[in-house]
Amino acid sequence: MARMNDMKVAALCAACGWTTVGDAYPIVCAHCQQVVHGPGTYKLVDPKSAEADPLGIAPHEPGAKLDAGKIRPWLCVSGFSRALAKVADVTTKGAAKYSPNGWMEVPDGQARYMDAFGRHMLALGQGETTDPDTGCLHKAQMIWNLLASLELDLRQEP
Fold it and tell me: How far is 69 from 54, CA to CA, in rounded Å?
């Protein structure tokens, strides 16, 4: 696979107009799943350069939105809305049982939340889908504990 100057390549899909970032060809469009074998089907955009409209509209033209190559959090929220609602239920019940966002101050939180993740995983592995203490799904509690541990890890990064 050919690399483009040893950097990531943002490419505008000619088939659907979405922007996808890849390391090398072939690039698979994140929206329509079209496999692209070379630059002929895509308009290449340097993701480190100035912002660009994913449809190629000039920055000062009506309808331009300079968001090519940026993260798309709404895909996560809309795509996982039911699962996130179950995780939010865990957050809500935890805030009522303890304190809102009190989890941020738990000593050795990263390790303790990983242990809690493991306990919920073991319960799920034994066939228990719902925690009898909270009424929450074990998978939702596993995800919550991973998110808490990850958030604490990320807050320690420079």
Answer: 8
